[in-house]
TrEMBL record:
Record's protein name: AAA+ ATPase domain-containing protein
Organism, as annotated: Rubroshorea leprosula
Location of the Disease resistance N-terminal domain: 13-93
Domain R13L1/DRL21-like LRR repeat region: 665-798
GO function terms (MF aspect): ADP binding
All residue ranges annotated as the Disease resistance protein winged helix domain in the record: 421-495
Domain NB-ARC, first and last residues per copy: 163-336
Amino acid sequence: MEIVTTLVISPILQEILSRATSFADGEIAKAWNLEKELLSLTKSLPKLQFMLEAAGKMVECNDTIRDWLRDLEDLAHELVSLLDECDYEATEQVHTFLPSFSFRRKMAGKIKEIEDFFHRGIQIIDVLNLLLTSLDVATPGQYPDDISEILGREHDLTEIISLLNTLSSKYPLSGLSIVGMPGVGKTTLARSIKKWAEEGNFYDLVAWVSVSKKFDEKKILEVMVEYLDGRAGGWNSYDAMLQHLRRMLENKKFLLILDDVCNELDAETWKRFISRLSNTFKASGNSSIVVTTSNKKVASTMDAVGCNRVPMIKHELQKLSNEECWLIMEKKVLSSSNLTSIKDPELAIGKAIAGQCGGLPLVADVIGEALSQHIDADKWSAIRDNTAWDSPHRKGILSKLKKSSDRLSLPLKKCFSYCSIFPKGSEIRRDEVVQLWMAKGFLFQHHGSKSDEQEDVGDRYLEDLVSNFLFQDVKMDEYGNIESFKMHDEMHNLALSLSTNETFIWPDTRPIDPSCIRHLRVMSNTNFSVLPEAIPARLHSLFLDADVFQTMVSKLSSLRSLKLAAAGKEDLEASLCTLKYYIKYLDISEVQEVPGFVTKLYNLQTLRVTGCRSLGELPTRIENLVRLRHIYFNDERHMPSSVGKLTALQTLQLFVVGEQKGRRIEELKCLNQLRGTLKICNLEEVASESEAMEAKLEEKVHLIKLQFLWSKCRRANRNIDESVLEQLRPHSNLKSLTLENYRGGNFPIWMLKNAPSTFDLFRLNNLVNLELFNCDECCNISCLRLLPELKFLHIRAMSNMEGIGSKFYHDTRERASRIRVRGQPITLFPALIKLVLENMTKLKEWIEEQGLVVFPCLEQLLIWDCPEFETWWIDGSASQKLSVLSILECPKLQVIPSGMLNLKSLNIEDCHNLKEYAQRDSPKWDNICHIPHIKINGEMVQSQDS
């Protein structure tokens, strides 16, 4: 029987507690006469949660606890389903719904069963309490039996030793943290540092402390004393122990290695620990601390606290190359045989296997041990071809990686294990995974804690998992938010093992217990003729990458999340009727038609219909989905009418303004929970500034990206464009703004400043990115010159803009002599990093003005399709940091300014008057020959290696 751990239960109990508390405090509980049962349940659940922490330590050695947890899980899921039914019926009939006697009895009965399990659990744990083991907080001198010498880490060892020597020569106490994902070799490297310190006598005393589960400074200091003189515990006071430690370390240089500091460390605890060590080492010479951790936040805390008194440097370990992994495997094989080298065909097979290690020395070490058992091509081929996570050598890897998940909180473990539903190597988007966690009920806060949206909790969970290196290849947006990530193959195997047979990806050869499966993915191009009969009705998540939905409709009864590759309307409608109480996440992007019954899914939180171009309009009455928080569509035809009634909505990426009721701009009025990106199209349909005011965009404090689009082919109405845009004033939290096909001659006052008499107070003082496309009537962007955070500016098809100079930098009303503060020139575009000028048909010149500091941070410049551009003189502040320059389709430009000494990359395309720059015997070549990368008309004429 597979082990059931408390990670399965805990998030479910949190959801029940949150929802039961809400029910108990409301009118519904009174109407249904369930107050007593719900209040009793809310009192029992926190105690039950505490018991689960204890039960989790006994589950692997006791069948009674294991069975108790499995039964409790089933009950908890049933109670959540009942709560979903309550929500649904209450929405369907609002105040008129009174549950039947049988329904009320079923609800009360489930609550009573939960309480009975609570009392039964207390009895079980009391009897088996002696089986609970205490936490191993810190133990001296213990480290794993890895390979005896480091391979592939010679450079890291040299660098760390150099850093330790440099620091210890300057400071009485200093430190270094070695950071990296589980299995990357942090502990092995720390062992090499310890060996270097002892053999070279660089320190008088060296102590190794395995911190592991909890950072307890008193325990660590006790271990240090035990390490030094063999005395363990028995101290009358903390001060007495510190005094004894101080005497032992007097006039001695000390190296302390804290291995595996993995739980998050608060700043005050580390500060207090460092302060006590610093006082202890006052007369000890120049001592050092080396910390290994798989948690980026731990290293950051140490850096932040240590920078004042005790400097800490972070050294992050990267994954090894395939060749370095092979060296580890080869060393393992040769050390267990009489061979001096490995010959073909084993050599070729072994190097192929090294590519499966994913750059982790731990994996290479374990597989090397497996290869050493039988040096035989057939045996090695079998290991190479057996990539299943439950194969013998993979189990060895998982047993070593498991501690990286053991330290996680129970909700984090469940969120991590759920990600095994995604295929190996796939890119996982942040918004999708957070919404799936939410649908499963993983994102409820503990009762009484700070009130946050579930999406906020999910974002924090994701950041914690990334910080612990459980996710890799993280992509961030320009604002520092996680966009997507991937899972290392071994981390995926770990997540799959933690799912305790809950997750299954078809096809898979591993043995399964069908009654355990709650999350199923069917891969594309697969034969699905066997498994359907074994699919349990308890399935909670179904991801179909193949068109096999019609074979499964009758099997589905309790899905929370459904993602389809394709389905017929009738099949989908029949299934949704069955799932109406429970479904919370629905991705039907590939279907040809959305059935009308979608509007009856009152508990739905996320709806995605983005992938099918032939999809027609969405059904009417979408506004019935009162709990809908995220809706995704990318076609104007799919925008639901009366979207303004969906007041819980957070994601509405596209809003198309129309004349008819339900599609007017005023629909945005009450959608103050909107987050992320909002694109508003057909703004020419807004008839007046009073209509624009009704959108109340300034109240959308969570929106960070706005796109305002007018149709290109329309009757020009310059005045209405200006007045409408003036009233579409966003909140000052906005970070990205796009204006497209705007025909006003001036930009609105909120893009300029709050008060006419000042230059430094701006509405958009948090704006990072600005895009101005086809704004034909505008001739300058002087209002943007002082935006303090603007880093990216893209201007396309501003056909009236003739030059970059005085009109570009300031209004004709304001001369340079007037924009000075206390005699010093104001810095214009102070944070701009990237500037793109595209399709500027009248742009002729770029002339810098003396006495102004302009573009001091500019690193990238792209000038594209400017047929009249011929004069360019750039010097001073704008050329200091410029490293990337692209000039495309500027046929009249004859000269590239000199003086751009930091330029690293130059790309010239279709600029016929610049042809001399490609000739090495031309005097103009001398102006650019210092640039490492030069590409002219698609041909690389100079690269870094040339």
